[in-house]
Amino acid sequence: MTCPFLSYRKSADGATFDEARAYCEAEERFVQPMRADICNDRFDLDHAEDCEIYREHTDGGDHGSDGDHGEDDP
Amino acid sequence: MSYERFLADEPVVVTAALTGGIHGKEANPNLPETPEEIGKAAGEVEAAGASVVHVHARTDNGERAFSTERFQAIDEAIRRYTDDVIVQHTTGATQAPTENRHLSLRTDPPPEMASLDMGPLNRYERLTSENTLATIDALYDEMADRGIKPELEVFNDGHLNEVHGLLDRRDLAEPVYATLIFGPGTLTRPRPGNFLNAVDNLPEGALFNTLGFGRHQLPFATMGILFGGNVRVGLEDNVYYRQGELAESNAQLVERVVRVAGELGREVADTSQARDILGL
How many CB atoms within 10 Å of residue B189? Predict the structure, then answer.
């Protein structure tokens, strides 16, 4: 399961991209590509354990939402 | 030792790290990610004076890619846009399976050079690029089999021990080529005394490349030039041209360091000279 705060967007905050990029709804910003691997739980990573942003915004608990995946979510 | 190379007028090899594997266009929209963009950037930095391009692969939306096929596509684009540049692939792949790290070595033809991380590196709060001795040896062995020159990446002073250890375990071709890296976190603290200490602790005869992250890119490149080393610049390591001003391109960063080398009286190596210096 990917992070509920993850969406894919082509534009936000004045930035526009040709391809939809990983966007953190909790931080309201595009995320670094390496961090996107955590958001997507790739390589045995677990966003709930390995992402300090997720833990900060959930206080280590359940986010309680299926997340806003944004208008450009594929 | 190294200052003698400065006095001897040995040309400086400029490497451009075009893309990297951490940040992307969200940090600087001028950072190349697709094979076509990376190929064009390689052509621009070669024209600006770089003789080596350090290459990472990305998917079309900028996320990390490791497949041989993606590196192959990038190399083909680089060859379309460059005359004779030396291609250096990364073997870094934080948190990804170790097998992924070998894939960049298997293009046809193989890259002339590839990076070889000398030890662990922390990222974010819970990620680590492990770089065990077994991983280092396995990557080195495949490089040796395929005729690829390793660029030994020294993230901190402990990794200098690992360089000596690798030379004890394996018979590296001369000259040994190590990149001394300065910056935040696990990296060597970016202070001039640490730079001189790192240079002094390299194996006898080793060449070094100088890499400073972020705002440290220019001062450490300048020290590298002045103390007989080589330099690496580019958007992988630094997305700014100066404080608060994003770099326009990789070539802009190369052009600046080439100007610095000229002012300090060091010729910048062309690709033929770079091959001679690096023993390719």
Answer: 12
Cβ <8 Å between B22 and A15: no
Instruction: For residue range A19-28, list pLDDT tens digits in order.
Output: 999 999 999 9
Give the CATH number of the domain where residue B44 resides: 3.20.20.70
The tokens for B181 are: 């890296």
Q: Hey, what amino acid is at B141?
A: D
Q: Measure CA A61 to chain center.
A: 16
So what's the pLDDT on residue B3?
A: 77
In contact, B30 and B235? CB cutoff 8 Å: yes
The pTM of the full predicted model, rounded to 2 decimals, is 0.93
Instruction: Determine which helix (DSSP H) or strand (DSSP E) holds B69, and give its type and residue range.
Output: helix B68-81
Q: What is the ipTM of this complex?
A: 0.90
Domain that holds residue B153: 2-278
**Residue pair B231/B17 in contact by the 8 Å Cβ criterion:** no
Among B22, B25, B26, B127, most A C-beta atoms within 10 A, so best to mutate, is B26
Question: Does the pLDDT of residue A69 top 90, yes or no?
Answer: no
Count structural domains, chain B.
Answer: 1
Q: What is the pLDDT of residues B88-118, one digit of tens each?
A: 999 999 989 999 999 999 999 999 999 999 9
